[in-house]
TrEMBL record:
Biological source species: Ceratitis capitata
Domain of life of the source: Eukaryota
Keyword Nuclease annotated: no
An example Gene Ontology biological process: synapse organization
Signal peptide boundaries: none
UniProt name for this protein: Papilin
SMART domains, alphabetized: IG, IGc2
Length: 150
């Protein structure tokens, strides 16, 4: 049997709060047992991690920097493991996602939970991202004003 094909976005780099979907395709008619791992540790379904069998998919929701690592799809058949892995990076913030201290006191904005406000998202991008205070439907965008609604 050939190794499983693990598909993921081309860049493999994500922002905190986003979702990641990985698909493990098996190029054979056999039905192997599929196991997912992160950094060689088996993964189990949680409130943020969904594993489906048909198709073999792993979905991570509301990712954090700690979700960075090497994800593997392991297909076991006739006692043999066939592995494919991808490196996933969760960035703490984009290089152009900065705080503008002239327009807002970003430490205060984070403490007061004002990161949901578009004005503060723009001027306190770095602080809000690092403290995971940006709403789930908002991601940092390196183009434009730095904020993108999903």
């Amino acid at each position: 049997m050939a190794s499983p094909i693990l598909t993921l976005d081309a860049n493999n780099t994500y922002m905190p709060g986003s979702s990641i979907a990985m698909t493990c395709a098996i190029p054979a008619k056999l039905k192997p047992t599929i196991t997912w791992t992160k950094d060689k540790t088996p993964l189990l379904a949680t409130d943020r991690l969904e594993i489906t069998i048909e198709p073999h998919t792993l979905v991570l929701s509301n990712v954090t920097v700690e979700d960075s690592g090497t994800y593997s799809c392991i297909a076991k058949i006739f006692g043999n493991d066939h592995v494919n892995e991808k490196r996933v990076i969760i960035e703490s913030h984009k290089a152009d996602c900065i705080d503008n201290k002239y327009f807002a006191n970003c430490q205060l904005i984070v403490r007061a939970n004002y990161c949901y406000h578009r004005y503060y998202q723009k001027f306190c991008c770095k602080s809000c991202s690092e403290n995971e205070k940006l709403p789930k439907e908002v991601q940092v965008d390196p183009i434009g004003d730095g904020i993108r609604k999903l």
